[in-house]
Amino acid sequence: MDTSAVEALILWLSRCYEAEVITDASVGLPLSRLGSMEFIESLIREVSMREDFGEILASGISNAANFLGQHSRSLFGDTIYVDGTIVGYCPRLYIVDGLFYATEPKAPYSQMHEVTEPIWAWLDYVNKAEGAWGSSEVVKSIGRRFWGSEAAADFHTYEGKALAAKEIQDRQHLKGCLILCNFSWATAEIEYFEPEILSQVIGAATGRNLNLSELKHIGERVFNLQRAILIRDGRQGRHGDTLPDAWV
Predict the structure, then answer these.
(1) What are the tens digits of pLDDT across the range 177-205?
(2) Which domain holds residue 178?
(3) Which residue, 76, 108, 139, sits at the end of a domain?
(4) At CB < 8 A and 24+ separation, what contacts does 223-229 make?
(5) Mean pLDDT calculated for residue range 14-26
(6) Which terminus of the chain, N or C, has fewer Cβ atoms within 10 Å?
(7) Structure pTM?
(8) Which DSSP symbol is given to 187?
């Protein structure tokens, strides 16, 4: 089971219980003992085995909210995303993250990590942490080299954020094809110092020599295919590229 999804599920169930949308009796779970081993074991068993209310929960938090109705969906708040996972890196702090959330079918953690990791490195630099390398100039250069413009690294403006989103999404979908962990292969820590590393990796694995432009095109094709699938499944194109109400 996805631990992030389970975390979001427990948080949402606790809010529904406090708002009296559900009770122990109505869902067959010991909600009055939230956080206890009894509750955790009951929840995991029912969801895993699709027993009783667990059948509803196993269909996803969004479908479960539709089933309960009332104002249960509003209880997602700004901490639970519509795909049923805990929200990380709120777009009200990192503007470009809003574009990821609006256009991706699930919480886009790899894309968001590319944005947040340089900021964490910058905070270490500002706080004079030992070995810190993320000066303001480094962050600006990351914007120029990987996000399309220096303006993309300025979190006080919307300028450059659309291009940055495209650049980051194409690259991270490419890394997904290469099965590269975004923690171990962080853009700011690996590609910044070894710009040709992705070309070298794919060349060593496949014998094909692809330059960075060709590799980025692969990531773009993956993103476009993902969009086509979303539209086939009922997504209304740009009209469906929205953020949860709690963020607007």
Answers:
(1) 988 888 888 888 888 888 888 899 889 98
(2) 95-247
(3) 76
(4) 223/169, 223/170, 223/173, 226/104, 226/105, 226/173, 227/103
(5) 94
(6) C
(7) 0.76
(8) I
